[in-house]
Specification:
- The structure holds two protein chains of two kinds.
- By secondary structure, chain A is of the alpha/beta class.
- Chain A has two domains: about 240 residues, Thiamin diphosphate (ThDP)-binding fold, Pyr/PP domains (Rossmann fold); about 130 residues, Rossmann fold (3-Layer(aba) Sandwich).
- In chain A, the strands form three sheets. A seven-stranded mixed beta sheet of chain A has the order 3-2-4-5-7-6-12, sandwiched between helices.
- Chain A is globular, with a radius of gyration of 21 Å.
- The N terminus of chain A is likely disordered.
- In chain B, helix 4 packs across helix 6.
- Chain B has a six-stranded mixed beta sheet with strand order 2-3-1-4-5-6.
- Chain B is globular and about 40 Å long.
- In chain B, strand 5, helix 2 and strand 6 form a beta-alpha-beta unit.
- By secondary structure, chain B is α/β, with parallel strands linked by helices.
- Helix content of chain B is about 35%, strand content about 20%.
- Chain B has one domain: Pyruvate-ferredoxin Oxidoreductase, domain 3 (3-Layer(aba) Sandwich), CATH 3.40.920.
- The chains are: A alpha/beta, B alpha/beta.
């Protein structure tokens, strides 16, 4: 583990030779950072009052960097090293209930150990923000990337965001706090372990003033948090006469939060100039084949479909392939997904996790969202489990399979 | 896009070497990406790290299967790891060794095979066999893709003050001593 991971600013002018959909010019203020470092720098700007984490595997450089910022006096907060992830989650739960901004990060088995508290945080309506560096779950023991960890808590009542690259990881953390504190619901930002957390790439870390403008100090109104002068109970006993309505209210608020998320994406664009949405479509309009996925694999998929689409003339959209990226998995953006999938005939859903005994989780949900509303064939593909590399060739293979007759779920590992 | 694959063992600074190359390319005004692939996280285990350099944003995140450059930090890997996997006709290979490589790697044409005694260079410049900055210098010489001034800047940002000058010296010595 390196203790001297650097923060590097960039000033030089960049080549404008390439004019594709890919950006060919870096922003003047971009830096070359490891993903975990970029997230830690962002959390430093967000200034949580309490950070708690368990520092041993599975953990990332994020909390290591934050501990160093605190030790070096660059970050003023309570930094509590917990004895387990269960404790770390409980500490941020308690701190959040006192009305302050909190942060924690975990991964894999760590998230599973937090699970009970994760449900409590949402049930108590606490605006906790957590980074999940997505990694596989035991057994067998595996430290590498997939999304099985977050899928185990998808029903907990958290908003779940997925980052494609480290710039999105930075941006989604700013958005997470802004949204969480408005609607009193927790947000988990999912960042692919190793593939993003350990990868160095250019990232723009926003200016302090911009962050302060976008995300003002967290000042919840009196009476909404634990205060000896104004007593309140969180997560109290609810008998059958009350429990169901309280859960329904949580569901209603999660669904209603879509509007607020969209609104904050707009505000974010105004302040920082970068666009985000619940879902993002990439590729030719009305493509007959659409691949659906979340997280960092979308980058490789974009490169793969560029090569596939290049083979066909512009007029031949029958053969062309598009990508629908899901940035916001909870609340699930049904209508937005349907809008982009309606013209498609073949839909391949790529999951880096599996609901064992069923199929890919995202695939099931896409099928449900499309039920009775499209005629597309929707097929589940399981990829990248336990760090298996996902290549352009595999994406090409998936395109071929989904355009065929077979509808069975497939594992694509080669 | 230029793809560089570095082979070494845990503890040899393989990942740092990839990061230094990518950081230097970034300072040169290019787009870059560096990522590690850990087999098992322990000292001595074979490790790969990847660096990509391009004129446009890099979105591809797969491992590097057809490298333009292969750097081998530890020649003892040649017997156990297929370091040449996916090598193209024009792929250049840089190996840390004092031995004659043409026998060890007969598949690679002579003009594309480079070697340097990085371990001796590191011991001379740093006092310890910390070879990664030497290999970054060798890569700069062989590829012509990154500026020396940018590597120096990357080293300054990366290493503790007392090690900066020594690593820059190792890098510069290697830059001059890499040969066919």
């Amino acid at each position: 583990m390196q203790s001297q991971r650097s923060q590097i600013s960039h000033q030089s002018q960049r080549s404008q030779k390439f004019q594709t959909s890919q950006s060919s010019q870096q922003s003047q203020s971009s830096q070359f950072l490891e993903g975990s470092r970029a997230i830690a720098e962002t959390i430093k700007l967000i200034k949580p009052a309490v950070i708690s984490a368990y520092p041993i595997t599975p953990q990332t450089h994020i909390v290591e960097d934050l501990a160093k910022f605190k030790a070096d006096g660059e970050l003023s907060c309570e930094y509590i090293q917990a004895e387990s992830e269960f404790a770390a989650a409980s500490i941020v739960l308690g701190a959040s209930a006192t009305g302050v901004r909190v942060y924690t990060a975990t991964s894999s088995q760590g998230l599973l150990l937090m699970a009970e508290v994760i449900f409590n945080i949402a049930g108590m309506r606490l605006p906790v923000v957590l980074t999940c560096a997505n990694r596989a779950v035991s057994a067998p023991i595996n430290i590498w990337n997939d999304s099985q960890d977050v899928m185990t808590i998808r029903d907990a009542g958290w908003l779940l965001f997925f980052a494609e690259n480290n710039q999105e990881a930075v941006d989604l953390h700013l958005l997470a706090y802004k949204i969480a504190e408005q609607i009193n619901l927790p947000v988990m930002v999912n960042v692919d372990g190793f593939v993003l957390t350990h990868t160095w790439e250019p990232v723009e870390i926003p200016e302090k003033d911009q962050v302060n403008k976008f995300l003002p100090k967290y000042n919840p109104p009196s009476g909404t948090y634990l205060d000896p002068a104004n007593p309140k109970t969180f997560g109290a006993f609810a008998t059958p006469a009350y429990y169901m309505e309280i859960r329904q209210e949580l569901q209603d608020d999660l669904i209603a939060s879509k509007k607020i998320i969209k609104n904050e994406f707009q505000n974010f664009k105004k302040t920082f100039g970068r666009s985000h949405d619940l879902v993002e479509y990439y590729g030719p309009k009305n493509a007959k084949t659409v691949l659906v996925a979340m997280g960092s694999v979308v980058g490789t998929m974009k490169e793969a479909i560029e090569e596939i689409n290049f083979q066909f003339p512009i007029s031949n959209f029958q053969k062309k392939v598009g990508i629908l990226k899901i940035t916001c998995f909870r609340p699930f953006p049904n209508e937005e997904i349907l809008k982009f999938l309606k013209p498609a005939r073949y839909v391949a859903v790529l999951d880096k996790s599996i609901s064992l005994g069923a199929e890919g989780v995202l695939a099931s949900e896409i099928k449900a969202a499309c039920f009775g509303k499209t005629k597309a064939k929707i097929q589940s593909f399981i990829i990248g489990l336990g760090g298996r590399d996902v290549t352009k060739e595999m994406v090409g293979k998936i395109v071929k399979i989904v355009q065929g007759k077979d509808e069975k779920m497939r594992f694509v590992g080669k | 896009m230029i793809e560089i694959r570095i082979h070494g063992r845990g503890g040899q600074g393989v990942v740092t070497a990839a990061e230094l190359i990518a950081t230097a390319a970034f300072y040169d005004g290019k787009f870059a990406q560096a990522s590690p692939f850990f087999g098992v996280e322990r000292r001595g285990a074979p490790i790969e790290a990847y660096a990509r350099i391009d004129d446009k944003e890099i979105r591809l995140r797969q491992h590097i299967y057809k490298p333009d450059f292969i750097i081998v930090q530890d020649a003892t890997l040649l017997g156990s790891v297929d370091v040449l996997a996916g090598a193209k006709k024009e792929t250049k290979v840089i190996v840390n060794t004092e031995k004659d490589l043409s026998k060890l790697l007969p598949k690679i044409k002579k003009g594309q095979l480079y070697s340097l005694p990085a371990t001796q260079i590191a011991i001379k410049a740093i006092g310890k066999p910390l070879i990664n900055t030497a290999l970054v210098g060798a890569f700069a010489a062989v590829s012509g893709l990154i500026k020396i001034s940018s590597i120096e800047k990357a080293i300054k940002e990366r290493f503790p003050t007392k090690l900066v000058q020594k690593n820059i010296e190792a890098m510069n010595l290697a830059y001059k001593s890499v040969y066919h």
